[in-house]
Design goal:
The protein is mainly β and 340 residues long. It is built from 2 helices and 22 strands.
């Protein structure tokens, strides 16, 4: 038994390791081809060329969907339209008002030129006249409720001084657009479809406008936090008005869908095949003999996956599925450069 443990078992282990080593050497030098010439018939090949796709026809619906927020429309300032003293404050804070309703009366004194004449002896005289007094009414700029009215009777005001504000009490939906979304909405419609999570059925939001995001107020130095409701960053903001009768509240999240056009039965290619995505672009056309041609095309609508080609291609032509990229291989700095 001791002979088996000391001689036979070690010899078997050596034999097994030798067989494994020989198998690894065979696999390394033959490449797993089973003895066939790797370059001979039947050997598997690796296709490294870029795939191509045909130019086809389809329908492109340019629908941009973004996440937005319901916000209260900003209060309109009430500004003095004349210089003078406050005669009367006609409404109280929080009172409902209509557009054009009188809010404040300002007493304005106009100095009149003196009466010039001569006395009995022919000497010139100048008799001052009492100032002309008139009342100027400051009206509400919009309908809503009076938010603030920080003026007192007999307070002196100048033209343009802010006397208070009127909150319109209306709501809007705002959403920040990415750069790609801005390009897809170069000609936006006047409406958008809005869906508020947990709220009413999707509704049409009117008066859609695109513009720069409002600037944030300076951050308080003691907190460093942005003002409530301020956007997180700059960029372009889409904004539309919530129609009357729709029950939503400021601060609610919403999904905004903008339908910016549909093109039916048009030439389309994948968006990955085009260099550029707005108005003009380049594609690489592959001929029957495998030659490639860079060709300028005129572009139309896109849905984010395929894009309409209005000019420059014919149906059935083959184009590279992906835009070629320049060689970005990194040169090893330790390798010697060219001699001379």
């Amino acid at each position: 038994m001791s002979v088996v443990r000391t001689i036979v078992f070690p010899a078997l282990r050596l034999l097994v390791w030798a067989v494994i080593a020989v198998a690894l050497v065979v696999l390394a030098f033959r490449g797993g081809t089973g003895g066939r010439d790797p370059s001979g018939p039947g050997a598997p090949t690796l296709e490294l060329g870029s795939p191509t796709v045909p130019v086809g026809r389809g329908t492109v619906a340019n629908t941009v969907s973004v996440t937005g927020t319901v916000v209260a429309d900003a209060a309109a300032p009430v500004r003095a339209t004349a210089a003078g003293t406050v005669r009367r404050v006609l409404v109280a804070t929080g009172a409902p008002v209509t557009s054009g309703q009188a809010l404040v009366e300002i007493r304005v004194e106009e100095q009149l030129d003196p009466v010039v004449g001569t006395d009995a002896e022919g000497n010139p005289t100048s008799t001052p006249r009492a100032p002309r007094v008139r009342t100027v009414t400051v009206a509400a700029p919009v309908a809503g409720s009076v938010g603030t009215l920080d003026v007192l009777v007999d307070q002196v005001v100048a033209v343009g001084d802010t006397l208070g504000s009127v909150a319109p009490g209306t709501l809007s939906v705002t959403a920040t657009l990415t750069q790609d979304e801005q390009f897809r909405l170069l000609s936006p419609p006047a409406t958008a479809e809005v869906e508020v999570q947990g709220g009413p059925a999707p509704f049409t939001c009117t008066g859609l406008t695109l513009g720069a995001a409002p600037a944030q107020d300076p951050q308080p130095p003691e907190t460093g936090a942005p003002a409530p409701g301020a956007p997180a960053g700059g960029g372009t903001t889409a904004r539309c008005a919530v129609p009357a009768g729709v029950t939503v509240f400021a601060g609610m999240g919403a999904t905004v869908r903008v339908q910016a056009g549909t093109a039916e039965d048009v030439l389309v290619v994948p968006i990955t095949a085009v260099q550029g995505s707005v108005q003009t672009g380049n594609v690489w056309v592959v001929g029957e003999d495998g030659t490639e041609e860079q060709r300028a095309v005129t572009l139309g609508l896109t849905d984010g996956e395929q894009i309409e080609v209005r000019e420059g291609l014919a149906e059935g032509e083959q184009v590279r599925q992906f835009v070629p990229v320049p060689d970005d291989s990194v040169v090893d700095p330790s390798m010697p450069g060219p001699v001379g």
